[in-house]
Amino acid sequence: MLDAAARKGVTLAVTVFPASTHTAEDAAAAVGAELGQIVKSLVFVAVTDNGSPDPVLCLVSGANRVDLARLAAVTGKGDIRRATAREANELTGFTIGGIPPIGHARPLRVIMDPDLGRFPVVWAAAGTGSAVFPVPPGTLRILANAEMAVIAEDIRQADRDQGRAAAPNLGL
Known about the structure:
By secondary structure, this protein is of the alpha/beta class. It is built from six helices and eight strands. It has a single domain, classed as Alpha-Beta Complex (YbaK protein). Helix content is 29%, strand content 23%. The protein is globular.
């Protein structure tokens, strides 16, 4: 991972914590950042005609969740799903909770959540469940060769939908 950054002329400062930074919440607490500043590196797959997985790495703000319909529209792949832990490891060379945004076992298409650009610095996994590095979002985009696209759920709509599901039907 550090070599991948160095090839693009960027030096990253990795911090290893004694406790886990496996989840976005853990990482935010460890580095003293907002949840939105944490980069979740999430692997999704579509199946190709020959049956092999076609991976897509999504770099998503820790406060957001990927909307599969939006991701399908952006990628042009109608049948896309979250990778299993085994698939994620085989496709990236890293285990879930430590998948960095760069330096994978094979080239991946990378899509970046524009919400990460709200912050001057974001924090991403550095290859293990207890290591992270800070990086400006613009630099992250360049390092990951990421395309920017709105792939996160509309939280306001998700809240409204959940509220509707929880509210009793009053026939109004």
